[in-house]
Every structure is written in structure tokens, then in C-alpha cells.
Automatic annotation (TrEMBL):
Keywords, alphabetical: Cell membrane, Cytoplasm, GTP-binding, Hydrolase, Membrane, Nucleotide-binding, Receptor
Membrane topology listed for this record: Peripheral membrane protein
Quaternary structure and interacting proteins, as annotated: Part of the signal recognition particle protein translocation system, which is composed of SRP and FtsY.
GO cellular component: cytoplasm; plasma membrane
Location(s) in or outside the cell: Cell membrane; Cytoplasm
Database matches in PANTHER family: SIGNAL RECOGNITION PARTICLE RECEPTOR SUBUNIT ALPHA (PTHR43134:SF1)
Recorded name of the encoding gene: ftsY
Keyword match Hydrolase: yes
Name under which the protein is recorded: Signal recognition particle receptor FtsY
Length: 370
């Protein structure tokens, strides 16, 4: 009997022990339970306060168009840029103001003129004229005589108007040619600004497909003044770009289309083929009204030889003389006109966007002598 009581007590104690152990285990587990994260339909595990609509809309950039300077005041504004060439004017005036003009003085005058790239024949003509006039008009002011003779040498009677209008409502077509690096693309961009300043509507053709950067460069020039630039694939056919641009110009009824071209001087036949084709293709739509040859004033005689090749390939009607600001050789204006029989119509006097000016013989000589 005692054994039965003892067994019952032990069994009760074991049951009690099992109950206590299980109870503690459940208690321990419930203490480490983590509440599930709060989720919102369609917002998987998003932080509770994230605002999905807060991403700002990309700002729409409205380009501000520039207002280019009117052409009339440009050559006067840029007068000081001719300071390099001004040495010629000052030198000549200094020599001509001497009391006695002996042979040595005349020789020094000749050297100055030749050094400024005026060319041999025009130098001799000018010296001859100066000698005669100063002898005959004894009391004449040397400055007045020199000014008149320099203006005559540059020939104020030449027609320097840019032909930028077409007939019968068609656009004027300006074909811009010249060796790479002379400032051709820059001149096309600056010319577009001159036309815009005169309230003309313009389309540009990036037909220099040889150098991809030239089309990008032109794109930027156009963007700044709200002018459309037609371009083609790199290495594509320049004539096809020129055609597309002129077609666009005709369809839109714009005033002027300006065509930039590649100026690879690989050989005369290649150049003739390329420029000839561009011109022919354009003229299926509208006549070319101006062929502008861009020449770098700092290249002297070398530039003149290149210019001659271009003038034999296309009928050049005007010259844009660039980088005259960096040259002490303003006499190149005379030399190039004599060699090609074509007037200088525009001069580049710096890298600023409005540093291209219509050329005027009187204002140019005044700048040289100031
Ligand atoms: N100082 C000065 N620099 C100029 C003038 N005109 C152009 N330039 C500079 O000459 C360099 C060549 O100009 P571009 O227009 O690229 O020459 P490009 O003839 O079109 O050359 P390609 O595109 O290779 O055919 C640029 O750095 C221009 O800023 C000017 O009148 N004065």
C-alpha cells in the first residue's frame, strides 16, 4: 500500500514538471515574436511615409534667343581690332610727314606697303600717285592725300552688297566655300546672325559632312538665334544636304538659305566635282545668288593661291576675309581683290558672335589711319 501511494506521488510530480517546462517554453517564444510589417496594397514594403508622387517633373527649358547686333555699327565698333594693321597707317603717316621726302623715305614707304601684303603692282601704283600728288599739290595735307589714295586703291566703286534675296519669291541662296580652318563654318554662323538682325528668315545647310563637328558647331550657331539647321549623316553626300535645306527654304518661303560646304583641297578635279555637284543640285530648285569665298587674312600669299583655285572652280561673287584682327597685314584686302577681281564684302574681326562686319573702304582706311 505504501508503495502504491509513493508511485502516485512520483507520477503527479512528473506530470507537474512537464506542465511547468512546456509553459515556460511557450512563454519564451512569444516574447521574441516580431509583428509583421505593415503593407499597403500596391506599395510592397514601402516605408510607411514614402510619398511616391514627390519625384519632380523634368524642367522644360525654353531657350532664350539672342538678339544679334545690327550690321551698320559693327565696323566702327571693331575699329580698335585693326590695331595690328594700324601700324601700317601710322608708319606711312610718319614717313610722309617728313619735311624732305628723299629716295630713302620712298623706299621705306614701299617696304611698309609690301610688308602689309598689298602686293607689288598696287604698291608701285600707290607710291607713284603719292609722289605725283604731293609734288603737284605742294601744300596738301599728307594724311588727306594718303586717305584718298588708299580708298581709291581699295576701289569704293565695287558693289559690296551681299545678294541674299531671290527673285520671284524664292529664297536667296548663299553658297559659302573655302579651305578648312579659314573660319568658314564660323562665318556661316555669324552671317546667319547678321541676317536675323535684319529681320530676315534663314535656313542653314550643314553640307560640310566631312567633319561631323562642323554640323554640331553650326547647330549651336542656329539654336542661339532660332535658325533651323539642316544636316545629314557624317560622310554623307553634301549635295543631298544642300538640296534638302534649299527645299525646306523654298517650302517654308524663307528669305535666305546659307550653305556651308567642305573645303577639302585634295585636288582641283575633286573640288570641282564636289562643289559643282552641290551648285547643280541646288539650282534644280533655286538659283545661287551669292558665292562667298572665305579667306584667312593671316595666311598671306599662301591663302591667295588657294583662293585662286576656288575661284577657278566656282564663280566667286564676294570674299569674306577672316581673322583680320590677328593680322598686321590689312593690305591683303587690296591684293585679294586685285588677284580675283572680286570685292571683299565681309571682314571677320574676332571670335565673338557678332565680330563679322560688312566691309566699307572708307571706314576701313579710317581705321588704318586712326
Ligand atoms: N580671331 C579670329 N578668329 C576667327 C575669326 N573667324 C573664325 N575664327 C576662328 O577660326 C577657327 C576656325 O574656324 P572654323 O569656322 O571652325 O573653320 P572652318 O573653315 O569652318 O573649318 P572646317 O569646319 O574644318 O571647314 C575658330 O577657332 C574660329 O573661332 C576671326 O575673324 N577672328
Amino acid at each position: 500500500m505504501e508503495w502504491v501511494v509513493l508511485a502516485a506521488v512520483v507520477a503527479f510530480a512528473l506530470v507537474l514538471l512537464v506542465v511547468v517546462v512546456l509553459g515556460l517554453g511557450r512563454l519564451g517564444r512569444s516574447a521574441t515574436t516580431v509583428a509583421p510589417p505593415r503593407t499597403v496594397p500596391g506599395d510592397v514594403l514601402a516605408p510607411p511615409d514614402a510619398d511616391v508622387d514627390a519625384t519632380p517633373e523634368p524642367a522644360v527649358v525654353v531657350p532664350t534667343l539672342e538678339r544679334p547686333e545690327k550690321p551698320a555699327s559693327r565696323l566702327i565698333r571693331l575699329r580698335q581690332r585693326l590695331a595690328g594693321s594700324g601700324a601700317l597707317g601710322k608708319g606711312l603717316l610718319g614717313l610722309l610727314s617728313r619735311d624732305h621726302l628723299d629716295e630713302d623715305t620712298w623706299e621705306a614707304i614701299e617696304d611698309l606697303l609690301l610688308g602689309a601684303d598689298i602686293g607689288v603692282a598696287p604698291t608701285q601704283e600707290l607710291v607713284e600717285q603719292l609722289r605725283t600728288r604731293l609734288r603737284v599739290e605742294g601744300s596738301a595735307d599728307a594724311r588727306t592725300v594718303l586717305r584718298e589714295e588708299l580708298v581709291n586703291l581699295i576701289d569704293p566703286t565695287m558693289d559690296r552688297a551681299l545678294h541674299v534675296s531671290g527673285a520671284d519669291g524664292q529664297p536667296g541662296i548663299v553658297l559659302v566655300v573655302g579651305v578648312n580652318g579659314t573660319g568658314k563654318t564660323t562665318t556661316v554662323g555669324k552671317l546667319a546672325r547678321i541676317l536675323v538682325a535684319e529681320d530676315r528668315s534663314v535656313v542653314l545647310a550643314a553640307a560640310d559632312t566631312f567633319r561631323a563637328a562642323a554640323a554640331d558647331q553650326l547647330g549651336t550657331w542656329g539654336e542661339r538665334v532660332g535658325v533651323e539647321v539642316i544636316r545629314g549623316p557624317e560622310g554623307g553626300d553634301p549635295a543631298s544636304v544642300a538640296f534638302d535645306a534649299v527645299k525646306e527654304g523654298v517650302d517654308r518661303g524663307v528669305d535666305t538659305v546659307v550653305v556651308d560646304t567642305a573645303g577639302r583641297l585634295q585636288n582641283k578635279a575633286g573640288l570641282m566635282d564636289e562643289l559643282g555637284k552641290v551648285k547643280r543640285v541646288i539650282e534644280k530648285l533655286a538659283p545661287v545668288t551669292e558665292v562667298l569665298l572665305v579667306l584667312d587674312a593671316t595666311t598671306g600669299q599662301n591663302g591667295l593661291i588657294q583662293a585662286k583655285v576656288f575661284s577657278e572652280v566656282v564663280d566667286v561673287t564676294g570674299i569674306a576675309l577672316t581673322k583680320l584682327d590677328g593680322s598686321a597685314k590689312g593690305g591683303i584686302v587690296v591684293a585679294v581683290q586685285r588677284q580675283l577681281g572680286v570685292p571683299v564684302k565681309l571682314v571677320g574681326l574676332g571670335e565673338g558672335p557678332d565680330d563679322l562686319a560688312p566691309f566699307d573702304a572708307g571706314a576701313f582706311v579710317d581705321a588704318l589711319l586712326s
